[in-house]
Amino acid sequence: MGKRAAQLQYETPAAWTESALRDINHFLADHANCERKASSTAMSMVVRFHDRREIIPTLTDLAIEELDHFRQCYRLMHARNIPLLPDTPDPYIRALLKLQRHGRDEHFLDQLLIFAIVEMRGAERFRLVHQACGDEELRAFYKSLWAAEAKHGHLFREMARIYFDDSEVDARMHELLRAEADIVRQLPWRSALH
User: Which of 138, 115, 141 is nearest to 34 (CA)?
Assistant: First the structure.
């Protein structure tokens, strides 16, 4: 597959944006929850994998950046009088996490690669929202996030390469990308990121 060749195996149809943007208030609130959870996940990995010292600075920076994305999202929501949503399980994330293997190293690799894929999918969908949204403020917001999410996907893969051979990372990434494509194909469209 090669270090830079990881690509989503299923492309979200452009028509998805109609469902996503049908209730933009709900989409923004769901997006805020996703950013908050992403920040929390990065910090939980710092705690759980505290002995993997090489990636702690990167995970910490990711947590801060995701929290800043939450803050930006919440500012938009606050200005539009949109309340936060209660925390509910995300069916996409739940399905992906079921793919994690047991065993400390296997679980660690899978977690890094699953979160790489989540960021890649987020980048793809933020690009679609940017292209389809008629609200100029939201278009600019999602353009900036599209680039950030793509960078995050790359960072998670590079963190995996610190501890695992390229061939192992690439092989497992390919397996997970195929499984993620099946998951996305089966999920109903809604006013949410996933």
Answer: 115
- 60 token code pair: 């910490």
| The CATH number of the domain covering residues in 20-186 | 1.20.1260.10
CA–CA distances in Å: residue 11 to residues 14, 105, 123, 175: 9, 30, 12, 17
**Per-residue model confidence as pLDDT tens digits over 28-75:** 999 999 999 999 999 999 999 999 999 999 999 999 999 999 999 999
CA–CA separation, 76 and 14 (whole Å): 24
* 124-127 LR contacts (CB < 8 Å, sep 24+): 124/8, 124/11, 124/12, 125/12, 125/16, 125/20, 125/193
Please state the domain extents for the chain.
20-186
Q: Is 107 helix (H, G, I), strand (E, B) or coil?
A: helix
Q: Which of 86, 123, 107, 114 is nearest to 180 (CA)?
A: 114
Task: Report the C-alpha gap between 173 and 120 in whole angstroms.
Answer: 12
Distance in angstroms between the alpha carbons of the first and the last residue of the chain: 26
CB of 170 closer than 8 Å to CB of 2: yes
Residue positions counted in the chain: 194
Q: What is the pTM of this model?
A: 0.94
